[in-house]
Write a structure and sequence with these properties.
The protein has twelve helices and twelve strands. A hairpin with a 2-residue loop joins β8 and β9. It is globular and about 55 Å long.
Length: about 350
Amino acid sequence: MSSLIRVVRAGLVCGVAGLLLASCAARNPGSPDVMAQHQAAAEAAAGNDLRPMMRLCTPEGVRRPPPDPDGSAIRALIQQPPPEPRQVFDNLYFVGARWVSAWALTTSDGIILIDALNNGREVDDVLLPAMRKLRLDPAQIKLVVITHGHGDHYGGAKRLVERFGARLVMSEQDWTMTQTQLEFATPAWDDPPRRNPARDIAAKDGETLRLGDTAMTMYLTPGHTMGTLSPVFDVRLGAQRHRALLWGGTSFNFGRDFGRLDAYIAATQRISGLVDAQQIQVFLSNHPGWDDSLAKMDAVQRQGTLAPSPFVIGENKVKRTLTVMNECAQVAKARYLQAP
């Protein structure tokens, strides 16, 4: 008996005739069994209709990805032909590129732009022509919400401020990061915007921004960066309103950083708990590859009308999406715990 007690205290009970497997998993979060359990949970949540999200479970490097010193890797992504700009709801338009999204939310007092692409040239060549094609006036951009402090989202912000006087919104954490020590830098991105307290907004967790008839609640969802913002807002289809969540930073591109992974796991759990309470039925991303938005826009184009919308996926599927993200983050954590 005493030897069995010693084994239990060592947290190795799953090696004793298979006893208390779940207890062992809890004690040894880096075991292959734990990683397999989280992988299976992610697969089950993804089913056949959320396969793009399963890329999160693909192994990432233990170390943070190397910088892009000459900008060639990012420029190759930028140079992909942009998709056709599309209206996806009565008040929401896709005006982004093939690699990175930008969304225009119209209000009674101007436009809220969510993310600003990689640089001023991409703003001039992609974003502004897309808006004009959709009969949106770029001069009406009043707020630019920067979901997190990486250059593919803030890079064009300075151009929008210079041309249209837009106010910029970012979390306090990511304002600090972009003004002190950038996490990633490449010459393919324009410099981060300088913070001007009279013009710029440091959004707080749970804070609601208002422009005209539209309210946007900002949730801090750390992990991708420690200041990632995920806004929640209403989208409209005729008389119908749907609550939409735009997840502000998806991938684990920070290497073996358990603090970041734990923050991401907690954020996905927290926001999943809000889905039923707020009746969130739309899940959006700031990269088209995560939310399958290009395929959904093609479906809207084929059907010739905005309704019924393939973007309205329902509360259960939104929660399943967050579950895949959560479980893949736990797969990554278990994998990193096994790494030398």
